[in-house]
Amino acid sequence: MKPSSVFLVDDDAAFRHVMSGELRRLGYEVTTASSGEEAIQRVVGGEPEVVLLDLRLPGMSGLEALKAINANAPGTEVIMLTGHGSIDTAIESIRIGAFDYVVKPCPLDELDIRIQRALERRALRQRAKLLERGLTPPDLGSSFVGESPQFRHLLNVINRVAPSDASVLIMGETGAGKERVAKLIHARSPRCSRPFVVVECAALQQNLLQSELFGHERGAFTGAERAKPGLFEVADGGTIFLDEIGEISPATQTTLLRVLDTSTFRHLGGTREIHVDVRVLTATNRDIAIMVRQGFFREDLFYRLSTITVEVPPLRERGSDIDLLAQQFVAALNERFGSNKQIGEKALELLRHHNWPGNVRELLHVVEAAMVLCEGPCVLPEHLPTVLRNAKPVARTSFSTAAPLPTTLQQVECTHIRSALEACNGHRGNTARMLGISERNLYRKLRECGLL
Predict the structure, then answer these.
(1) Where do you find CATH 3.40.50.300 in the chain?
(2) Where is pLDDT greater, at 304 or 400?
(3) Could you give the count of Cα atoms lying within 13 Å of 397 in the half-sphere of its Cβ?
(4) 59-74 pLDDT, tens per residue?
């Protein structure tokens, strides 16, 4: 493990020599400078983790050097070195941005403790930046591939919806790309620099979901040993995306409606009103309007969530986009695997004629599996799942009204699950991801369909 870097800036040559030797003995990588001007040049050249900066320096003062270091190396922590007569100035340096100060001559063990604390704060700040970056996805427009009229219409709707602050309900089949649509709406909105928080409503038990969304106080329920903020607080100023919104319980629906109407909520077990500024995007593969008529979903919440509705077309209706998507996946997987493979025309022909019940997600998994199985430079039909090789071409026309319905809804669902399972070569984890459900829900459905 690389030692932590400490940059000692002091005009006293004897002090520099002794202190740098002691710090090296403690395991630090030490460099030194005798003036503020030299220190700034060295900091710009390579950002140290911690700077020990003397307050009294010839020429540029320690405070001036501190300001310059903060401007040029914001990730560096600065500890000021000061004499007894300059403590007021040292305290002023903390206001300007120094981490701490120590009085010379300082015990080595005390200085070591201050340096370790500075390193800990630096690590925490870096982790916070990484988390914030992870919560602010980039504009994914360049990876949105398609030329079909349906896809172009979708992009046009996204570009019109994104700048507004309205709630958006994104509807579409499993695997069609609803989360990617939500990310693109956020990335093209005025909130793009703020967090984008994803909540998978179906993956959590309902009492846990309320705790995740709205937070809880210590002792609110068994196991709540400490207070925890909710994801609405994490998303403050940004966007929260509630996936599979049709799965939430009536109690959660009521609380969510209050948040949408008042922008306030309380922690579970709490009494304090918490105000947030959050845009809410939701998605579902279910027909919420039917759920409203059946009494399973609050009508007022439905209207509140669906101020704007965006429908993501299924892949089978974007036939001309299948080639483009497959080629994009091949290029991305080549980069990931360090390979240089292509997809053959005969394999593409099979992809074009598949019905894609799992939509874009299913296509991605099929292409990835084929590239793993392919030992040569070209993906051939034999590298594709059996369900694609044996399938008859699908006519991409609407059903005749005289044609009989294709059996019960449960049988259609079971057929869909069986196709997804075959496309993933029996891998249940990949099948659950393709279908957009949890593995627990997949196991339950497999039992119901007699597939276990």
Answers:
(1) 141-313
(2) 304
(3) 6
(4) 888 899 999 988 888 8
* Global confidence as pTM: 0.63
The predicted-structure confidence for 392-402, as pLDDT tens digits, reads as follows 554 443 333 34
CATH 1.10.8.60, the chain: domain bounds: 316-395
Q: Which ranges constitute the DSSP H helices of 135-241?
A: 149-161, 178-187, 206-214, 231-234
Q: Are strands 77-82 and 50-54 parallel, antiparallel or unpaired?
A: parallel
Q: How many angstroms separate the CA atoms of 355 and 397, rounded? A: 12
Give the burial class of 68: count Cβ atoms within 10 A of its Cβ; 0-12 exposed, 13-18 middle, 19 or more buried: middle
Contact 174, 435 (CB under 8 A): yes
Count the Cβ atoms, other than its own, within 10 Å of residue 118: 23
Measured distance CA(410)–CA(339) in Å, rounded: 42
CB 97 within 8 A of CB 78: yes
Output the pLDDT for position 427. Answer: 78
* Region 406-452: CATH code: 1.10.10
Provide CB contacts within 8 A for 411, sequence distance 6+: none
Joined together, the tokens standing for residue 185 give 């709406």
Q: Residue 387's pLDDT is what?
A: 83
Residue 443: phi and psi, rounded to 5, are: -60, -40
CB 264 within 8 A of CB 258: yes
CA distance linking residue 349 with residue 364, whole number of Å: 16
Name residue, tokens 């002794």.
18
Fold of 5-134: Rossmann fold (3.40.50)
CATH topology of domain 316-395: Helicase, Ruva Protein; domain 3 (1.10.8)
Say which CATH topology domain 141-313 has: Rossmann fold (3.40.50)
Question: What pLDDT, on the 0 to 100 scale, is given for residue 254?
Answer: 93
Are 245 and 287 contacting, i.e. CB atoms less than 8 angstroms apart? Answer: no
As annotated, the residues of the chain forming the CATH 1.10.10 domain(s) are 406-452
Give the β-pairing of 264-265 and 274-275.
Answer: antiparallel
CA separation for the pair 68, 96 (Å, rounded): 11
Of 282, 350, 316, whose CA–CA distance to 151 is shortest?
316
Which of 312 and 390 is assigned the larger pLDDT?
A: 312
Residue 194, token pair as written in the block:
């703020």
**Cα torsion for 376, 378, 380, 382, to the nearest 10°?**
20
pLDDT (mean) for 286-306:
92
